[in-house]
Amino acid sequence: MNRPASQGQDCIIEDGAKFGDGVHLGHRVVVHRLTVIEDDVRVADGAILGKEPSRSKTSTLKTGALEPLVIGRGTQVGTYAILYAGTRLGEDCFVADSAQVRERCLIGKNVVIGHNSTVENDTIIGDYTKLQTAVYLTAKSTVEDHVFLAPMVTTTNDPYIARTDARHAATRGPHIHRGARIAGAAVLLPGVDIGQEAVVAAGAVVTKDVPPYQLVMGIPAKVVRETPSEQLLFLPETTHQEDK
Prior knowledge:
The protein has one helix and 31 strands. The chain is an all-beta fold.
């Protein structure tokens, strides 16, 4: 792998960073040691790549040794975005301005992570999934392919809300199955399962699992009807369907 094809002023590139062909860096980009940036990646001004996590004195976060950050071919990284060490992004992703992706995340191909969105540590995101502006995806979440998270969706993972040691074993984010859609400002409580092609209405608070192919709304969210059949990417009782 080569040096960047071009770079702006005042970039910092640490030892061992690797670049594919056609990589372009904006001004004041920081590339930490051993970071791998594959072909045709474009990084905007002020982005920080391969950052090591830091901790407060009272934090219970355990980091350990992390693998290098890997950014897949054709990905675009926005201004002031922060991508942590230990994470891998697939091909043709789009990470918008001021978004951050924490350590040990696995991001599929063609994923969009919107402006000011945060993906916390140990999270999996499948192919073609979209996080709109200011989505908060908590640690230890699983989001499958073709999921849509509208602006300001909030997910949680601690049923004890930071009290008692029992929370450490119980910490778990939501599992959002393929084709599901979560509308603006909805809140998902720890560990809920959002079924395939389910829809969560705007402002809903999801306190329990949502069945596949159902639309829920309200506080707490309840099933009101089925997901309209003309909107489905994945039909019931099928394992594969051509992407629309």
